[in-house]
Amino acid sequence: MRALLMMVGFPDLPILSLMLVLVMIVLGAMMFGWIADLLLGASAFGTGFNTGIILVGAFGGTWLWHRYGFRTPFDPEAMRAGVGAGSGLLLLLVLAVTRR
């Protein structure tokens, strides 16, 4: 489990700090899911499914980014956060468009 968390960018944290970080990530994904539900209207999957889709997309995008080792001149942690948010929202939009 530790290797998986390190691979997606989590530092080696004590358990309480790790739980706090994970709760903040889930709450952020729920916020994105709720906003996406408002914006997509009938094409959306509901707040809960939107949140799940965003989390799966963010994890997958971050894993692929780390796996292929793209180099950028920007801060690696900021890029990982941007890639995670972008890939999660991209997956949600692709699924919403294909659902229609």
What would you say this structure looks like, in words?
This protein has helices at residues 2-7, 15-40, 47-68, 76-99. 78% of the residues lie in helices and 0% in strands. It is globular, with a radius of gyration of 14 Å. The chain is built from four helices and no strands. The model has no long low-confidence stretch (mean pLDDT 82). The protein is mostly helical and 100 residues long. Helix 2 (15-40) packs across helix 3 (47-68) and helix 3 crosses helix 4.
Distance between the termini: 37 Å
- Average of the residue pLDDT scores: 82
Radius of gyration: 14 Å
Low-pLDDT runs: none
Largest sheet: none
Instruction: Specify the structural class.
Output: mainly alpha
Number of strands: 0
The H/E string reads HHHH
Output the number of helix runs. Answer: 4
Q: Percent of residues in beta strands?
A: under 5%
| Overall helicity | over 70%
Tertiary shape: globular
